[in-house]
Amino acid sequence: SRRTDVVTGLRRQLMAAEEEDSLSYPPLNVTTGNYTCILFYAGNFSLKANHSVLIDLTNATFLTQNVDISASECSDSNTTLSLKYTKPVNGISSLEIRFLMTNKFYEVSARKWSTLHSVEIVQDGEKFAKFNVSGISAPAEYSFHCQLVGTSNLYPARLVPSNDEAKNWDVFISKLQIQGFNIINNQFSYASDCTGFFTPGIWMGLVTSIILLWILTYGIHMIMQLTTNSRFDDPKGPALSVPQTE
């Protein structure tokens, strides 16, 4: 009973810690009139310029909210989340990051899907970097969530450089959740996660199972090919002679 109490208390502490972590700060919201049209959240939102200058935008975006979102645009088919920062680090006077999303109807699935098509970075109003986005889409009624998003090849949702300027930037976003359409009660809808059903672990298990099944099948086949002698030597009779042709 003591162990049960300890485990129960530990579970409650872990659940409370998870709730506090998930509610550490509210998401960034863009409003049009009296309703929210864009919700954006990230556990860590960082950039690296020229592969050396680290720019952490997490606090400026969600805690102090030292970010200008007035250039953001919302419509039923296209949404743009514009984040403008003034002097985020020494050497950069202004920085704008744009998330471009679309909402289209696809006949194959017979429903609308919201897709984050591209991410743009504008430094000092001159240097323009564009990234094509792969793997960020969800039904229009849902939000999109992904644990890791960025320029690394190891992330499940990638930002692929589209021009030469984009190659000078590294982007890292953890615990990303974004929604640009059909927001109800100023809250995220059910999240469509970027992690597919067939994870690397599942693929390894399937391949291993197929190999073991093949070995088992081959072993059973070899056992079925074994034959027993059809003739036996009789000690009271003449010696048994088996021709070489048999």
Structure description:
The chain has 246 residues and is of the alpha+beta class. It has two domains: 23-193, Porin, CATH 2.40.160; 195-225. 21% of the residues lie in helices and 41% in strands. Strands 1, 2, 3, 4, 5, 6, 7, 8, 9, 10, 11, 12, 13 and 14 form a 14-stranded mixed β-sheet that branches. 22% of the residues are buried.
Mean pLDDT, as a whole number?
83
Structure classification: alpha+beta
Shape: elongated
Low-pLDDT stretches: 1-21
Q: According to CATH, what is the class of the largest domain?
A: Mainly Beta
Order of SSEs: HEEEEHEEEEEEEEEEH
Head-to-tail CA distance between termini: 75 Å
Largest sheet: 14 strands, mixed
Find the count of extended strands (DSSP E, 2+ residues).
14
Could you please say which CATH topology of the largest domain applies here?
Answer: Porin
Strand content: 35-45%
Q: Rounded to an integer, what's the Rg over CA atoms?
A: 30 Å
Domain count: 2
Helical amount: 10-25%
User: Count the helices. How many?
Assistant: 3
- The CATH architecture assignment of the largest domain turns out to be Beta Barrel
